């Protein structure tokens, strides 16, 4: 089982420009310190997301830019986008940016492609929102060809068509690709058909549900034709909130409050996403429905009840929060499901010292299998 470190962030850097500036500066200091420690401790990769205009992930607008900094601060650990919202970007720019990081890191990169879901993110590319899924999967195939050095035709400033080759040329012959899924079985199957690796999460689904999706992915991957640079067998990477302490009680006491706050944000965001999807579908089928088609928001009481339920269930299965022995059993269970790598989500509200101590304990567990 490979162990990686995932950043996602759910913190509020404070009110006012000065406080936010100082808070964000400190956050980048934390990321650099944790990345250097993960590199020394033997973790497989560091994942950084792409987020825009929200509390969650305030300091992560560009994984390529941050990975370029991490490339010069680390020596062996892989640097991956988890995830890059491909419909927001021209595929040529993606190929160019990640080729720079690939050269700086001497081939230590990987990219997980997401379709995007939050409509506000698409102020960066408003025309790409409605067909974002189709665009992502189409451009993923194009990205593979660009990385391999193939010329591709695009429209230039005069409206003519011109063939270009992405520069600089990357260090690696092929680009390691993942597809990000929020849980849809269709996305798991699509990732298999495209022969990409897959980046999912344990949260929000049962063990049996996840086992079924992994089987679906494996079957689709095995049946799919070969793709340039794709390995014979795909990698299943699962994100899990992680905090390893001396005892279960200590882990739950220290991680409980920040994890509940994160889960509260997750529950509210998930509910809002479902409401937006329902509204979008209702408007598409009944244009006269208007704003009345949008479901009502959760009340504070409902949100609190759902958060507590999610917290209790997540401690029972899906997280790496507990003693070394508890986390060892959780890792073995995920391996039995067919998981190849756990991306350990560490920055959900804990301090730098707590995260570093947790990673040291976790590295000891990973070292037992090496």
UniProtKB/TrEMBL annotation:
<keyword id="KW-0560">Oxidoreductase</keyword>
<dbReference type="Pfam" id="PF00296">
    <property type="entry name" value="Bac_luciferase"/>
</dbReference>
<dbReference type="InterPro" id="IPR050766">
    <property type="entry name" value="Bact_Lucif_Oxidored"/>
</dbReference>
<dbReference type="InterPro" id="IPR036661">
    <property type="entry name" value="Luciferase-like_sf"/>
</dbReference>
<feature type="domain" description="Luciferase-like">
    <location>
        <begin position="19"/>
        <end position="340"/>
    </location>
</feature>
<dbReference type="GO" id="GO:0004497">
    <property type="term" value="F:monooxygenase activity"/>
</dbReference>
<keyword id="KW-0503">Monooxygenase</keyword>
<dbReference type="InterPro" id="IPR024011">
    <property type="entry name" value="Biosynth_lucif-like_mOase_dom"/>
</dbReference>
<dbReference type="InterPro" id="IPR011251">
    <property type="entry name" value="Luciferase-like_dom"/>
</dbReference>
<dbReference type="GO" id="GO:0016705">
    <property type="term" value="F:oxidoreductase activity, acting on paired donors, with incorporation or reduction of molecular oxygen"/>
</dbReference>
<protein>
    <submittedName>
        <fullName>Natural product biosynthesis luciferase-like monooxygenase protein</fullName>
    </submittedName>
</protein>
<dbReference type="GO" id="GO:0005829">
    <property type="term" value="C:cytosol"/>
</dbReference>
């Amino acid at each position: 089982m490979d162990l990686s470190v995932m950043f996602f962030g759910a913190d509020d850097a404070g009110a006012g420009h000065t406080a936010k500036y100082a808070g964000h500066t400190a956050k980048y200091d934390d990321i650099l310190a944790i990345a250097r420690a993960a590199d020394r401790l033997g973790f497989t990769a560091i994942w950084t997301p792409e987020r825009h205009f929200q509390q969650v992930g305030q300091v992560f607008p560009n994984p390529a830019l941050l990975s370029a900094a991490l490339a010069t601060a680390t020596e062996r650990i892989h640097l991956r986008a988890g995830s890059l919202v491909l419909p927001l970007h021209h595929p040529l720019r993606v190929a160019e940016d990640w080729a720079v990081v690939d050269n700086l890191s001497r081939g230590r990169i990987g990219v997980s492609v997401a379709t995007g879901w939050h409509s506000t993110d698409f102020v960066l590319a408003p025309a790409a929102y409605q067909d974002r899924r189709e665009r992502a999967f189409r451009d993923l195939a194009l990205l593979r060809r660009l990385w391999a050095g193939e010329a591709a035709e695009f429209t230039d400033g005069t409206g003519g068509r011109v063939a270009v080759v992405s520069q600089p040329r990357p260090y690696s012959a092929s680009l390691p690709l993942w597809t990000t899924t929020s849980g849809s079985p269709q996305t798991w199957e699509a990732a298999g058909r495209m022969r990409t690796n897959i980046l999912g999460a344990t949260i929000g689904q049962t063990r049996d549900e996840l086992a079924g999706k992994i089987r679906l992915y494996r079957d689709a991957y095995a049946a799919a034709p070969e793709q340039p640079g794709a390995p014979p067998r795909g990698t299943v990477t699962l994100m899990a909130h992680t905090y390893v302490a001396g005892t279960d009680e200590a882990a739950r006491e220290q991680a409980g409050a920040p994890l509940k706050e994160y889960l509260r944000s997750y529950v509210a965001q998930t509910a809002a996403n479902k409401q937006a999807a329902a509204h979008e579908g209702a408007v598409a089928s009944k244009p006269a429905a208007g704003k009345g088609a949008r479901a009502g928001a959760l009340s504070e009481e409902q949100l609190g009840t759902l958060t507590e339920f999610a917290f209790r269930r997540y401690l029972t299965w899906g997280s790496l929060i507990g003693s070394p022995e508890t986390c060892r059993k959780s890792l073995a269970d995920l391996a039995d499901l067919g998981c190849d790598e756990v991306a350990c989500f560490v920055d959900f509200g804990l301090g730098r010292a707590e995260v570093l101590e947790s990673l040291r304990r976790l590295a000891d567990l990973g070292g037992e299998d090496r």
